[in-house]
């Protein structure tokens, strides 16, 4: 196709300015031109603006976000507030679908749709969806600049808020796109907030909200939404495309934080990744005092020349849950949220230019503006539900390097070497606070068995367990069996396989009270670090290695200046055999629903089960403490 001719039509009709067109052509990439042409024709914006990496271009986005009222400025310099529709406050799982061809197999828990039908439906919805609006053409990088890890991302959107968020969360990529040498080796994302209503403008046609993942074309089409988990191409939408790519190559894409652990008195940093379902302590682990944060949400992990797995954060910012961020428990984030810098609040209460969220540790005013609109205490929505002053899933969007614990290796093109992996669950009665897997395959099994109990913060019954393999179930686009197998082969390529640990910060005693204080997790993390460096011995059990009392006692003293009693240790590090067997039964039931789960998974399940039953017989009881196990 002669794109010069095609686009001259666009300039003639005033759709695109000459200098914007020049920016597009300077990339020398026909794939980009083809995509822009196809979706401009379909979405019919009244203007196309191409944003390069230049300061002026990025500043234009920021200014426009405010002038078109997608964001409003707050009292503190650089702070803005954005609202999503009252009905678009979280990821829409029901309408997020993986498009697959006839005959392709996916796990039963993956939401799929026939590709032809899906495309027909969404392209229909997108027809004219940008009418009267400006379409931004953006270029970003998933990963550090000049890095083997990094994947380019092209974003078309009619939301300046989406583009502004991406400037905070991702690295600039216009110049990197020139390095593609015309190839189509990039992801692309077409987003439209659709028809808008009200002031601030929010998506009107929520019933036509669709998020369709087209693996064949490395693209995601998303329409009639604004909430970042639905709208931002580079966040959970790119995660799915990258999971597909990694699982068909030799690397991993994970829903992981990356943490640099620094034990007291040792002059070293040891890197861990960690996957935790929501409300299981992911952010609080990534933000542990005295440690370094590289990333809080998504990691690409590759086998590296030094024999270690290396990981990069594909983001450079945080889209974090703001609920419960307060000066006492999260001093670093709280400080960043209450001092001048560029950041976006979303879906919190604003009164006199000040933001208020749930659990911020200070009283909030009885009225103001929030995600519902004009709000006052006691107001109910159309369903008769009381509207809280801020949404429980309200967020802040901020540059990571605005946090004082940000690790400069965030930008290391070689990533950081991973010595350990955490899988964090939430259960009140089964898993000890920390367990190390017996080997790599057993580590995969630990990750595959993560469960999270529902809390009073979510809708529905409390204490219901939800399986969440590697905290990645929502984002899996390949069969779970293939995903586990890929983990296995990944580990076998490495000379230094990461050691794998599970954590459970939520174990309760007979009285129903939590057995651990909030900061105890620091000891589990530092113990795991020591294990990867050969500092501690451990007690071997059928489910994995448990820490020894003396080591924990010393770490509690050193890291927290706390006395850790033998009684506490015994209660926390006891194998509750019946509960562990129940957990194995649940895993068996779930994984039986999948066609091809690798053999190693079933071998480990069988071995753990028989090992636990044997112990039960040997001790003649069903609760056996680590101290008793240490004797055998
Ligand atoms: C999560 O829910 O895991 C998040 C926020 O990190 S969202 O972008 O909505 O996915
Ligand atoms: Mn996440």
How would you summarize the topology of this molecule?
Layout: H1 3-12, H2 18-26, H3 30-43, E1 47-50, H4 55-67, E2 71-73, E3 79-82, E4 96-100, E5 112-114, H5 115-126, E6 134-142, E7 151-157, H6 160-169, E8 171-172, H7 174-178, E9 186-192, E10 196-197, E11 202-203, E12 210-214, E13 219-223, H8 228-231, H9 233-247, E14 252-254, E15 257-261, E16 270-275, H10 282-286, E17 292-295, E18 299-303, E19 309-313, E20 317-321, H11 331-337, E21 343-346, E22 349-351, E23 354-356, E24 367-370, E25 373-376, E26 395-399, E27 416-425, E28 434-436, H12 440-448, E29 451-453, E30 465-467, H13 480-492, E31 499-504, H14 521-532, E32 538-541, E33 544-547, H15 549-560, H16 566-572, E34 574-576, H17 577-592, H18 599-619, E35 623-625, H19 626-630
Parallel strand pairs: 1-6, 3-21, 4-5, 4-12, 7-9, 9-13, 16-27, 27-31
Antiparallel strand pairs: 2-3, 6-7, 6-8, 10-11, 12-13, 14-18, 15-16, 15-17, 18-19, 19-27, 20-26, 21-26, 22-23, 24-25, 28-31, 29-30, 32-33, 34-35
Helix pairs in contact: 4-6, 12-13, 12-18, 14-15, 17-18
The chain binds sulfopyruvate and manganese (II) ion.
């Amino acid at each position: 196709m002669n794109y010069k001719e095609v686009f001259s039509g666009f300039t003639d009709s005033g759709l695109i300015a000459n200098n914007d067109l020049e920016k597009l052509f300077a990339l020398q990439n026909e794939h980009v031109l083809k995509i822009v042409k196809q979706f401009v024709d379909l979405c019919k914006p009244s203007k196309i603006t191409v944003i390069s990496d230049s300061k002026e271009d990025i500043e234009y986005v920021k200014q426009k976000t405010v002038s078109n009222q997608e964001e409003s400025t707050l009292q503190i310099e650089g702070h803005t507030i954005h609202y999503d529709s009252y009905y678009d406050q979280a990821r829409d799982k029901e309408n997020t679908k993986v498009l697959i061809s006839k005959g392709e197999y996916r796990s039963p828990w993956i939401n799929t749709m026939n590709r032809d039908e899906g495309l027909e439906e969404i392209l229909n919805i997108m027809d004219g969806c940008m009418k009267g609006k400006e379409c931004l053409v953006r270029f970003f990088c998933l990963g550090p600049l000049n890095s083997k890890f990094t994947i380019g991302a092209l974003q078309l959107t009619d939301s300046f808020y989406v583009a502004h968020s991406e400037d905070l969360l991702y690295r600039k990529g216009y110049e990197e796109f020139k390095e593609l040498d015309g190839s189509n080796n990039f992801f692309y994302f077409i987003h439209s907030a659709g028809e808008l209503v009200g002031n601030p403008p929010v998506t009107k046609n929520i019933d036509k909200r669709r998020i369709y993942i087209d693996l064949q074309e490395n693209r995601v089409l998303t329409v009639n939404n604004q909430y970042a988990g639905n709208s931002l191409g580079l966040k959970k939408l790119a995660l799915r495309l990258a999971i597909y790519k990694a699982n068909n190559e030799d690397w991993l894409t994970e829903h992981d934080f990356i943490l640099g652990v620094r034990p007291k008195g040792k002059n070293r940093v040891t890197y861990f990744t960690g996957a935790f379902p929501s409300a299981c302590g992911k952010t609080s682990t990534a933000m542990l005092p005295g440690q370094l944060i590289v990333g809080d949400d998504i990691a690409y992990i590759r086998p590296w020349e030094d024999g270690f797995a290396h990981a990069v954060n594909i983001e450079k910012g945080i889209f974090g849950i703001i609920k419960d961020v307060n000066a006492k428990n999260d001093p670093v984030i709280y400080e960043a949220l209450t001092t001048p810098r560029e950041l976006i609040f979303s879906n919190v209460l604003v009164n006199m230019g000040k933001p208020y969220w749930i659990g911020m540790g200070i009283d909030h005013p009885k009225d103001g503006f929030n995600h519902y609109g004009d709000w006052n205490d006691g107001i109910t929505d159309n369903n008769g539900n009381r509207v809280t002053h801020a949404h429980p899933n309200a967020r802040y969007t901020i540059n990571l390097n605005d946090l004082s614990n940000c690790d400069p290796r965030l930008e290391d093109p070689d990533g950081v070497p991973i010595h350990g992996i955490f899988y964090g669950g939430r259960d009140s009665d089964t898993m000890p606070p920390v367990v190390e897997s017996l080997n790599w395959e057993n580590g995969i099994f630990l990750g595959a068995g993560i469960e999270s109990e529902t809390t009073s913060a979510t809708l529905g019954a409390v204490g219901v367990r939800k399986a969440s393999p590697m905290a990645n179930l929502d984002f899996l686009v390949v069969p779970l069996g293939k995903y586990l197998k890929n983990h296995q082969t990944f580990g076998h390529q490495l000379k230094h396989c990461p050691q794998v640990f599970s954590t459970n910060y939520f174990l309760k005693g007979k009285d129903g009270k939590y057995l651990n204080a909030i900061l105890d997790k620091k000891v589990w993390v530092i113990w795991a670090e020591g294990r990867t460096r050969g500092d501690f011995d451990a007690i071997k059990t059928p489910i994995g290695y448990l820490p020894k009392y003396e080591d924990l006692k010393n770490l509690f003293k050193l890291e927290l200046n706390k006395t850790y009693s033998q009684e506490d240790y015994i209660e926390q590090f006891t194998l509750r055999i019946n509960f562990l067997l129940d957990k194995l039964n649940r895993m068996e039931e779930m994984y039986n629903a999948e066609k091809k789960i690798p053999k190693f998974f079933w071998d480990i399940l069988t071995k753990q089960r028989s090992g636990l039953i044997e112990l039960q017989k040997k001790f003649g009881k069903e609760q056996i403490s680590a101290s008793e196990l240490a004797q055998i």
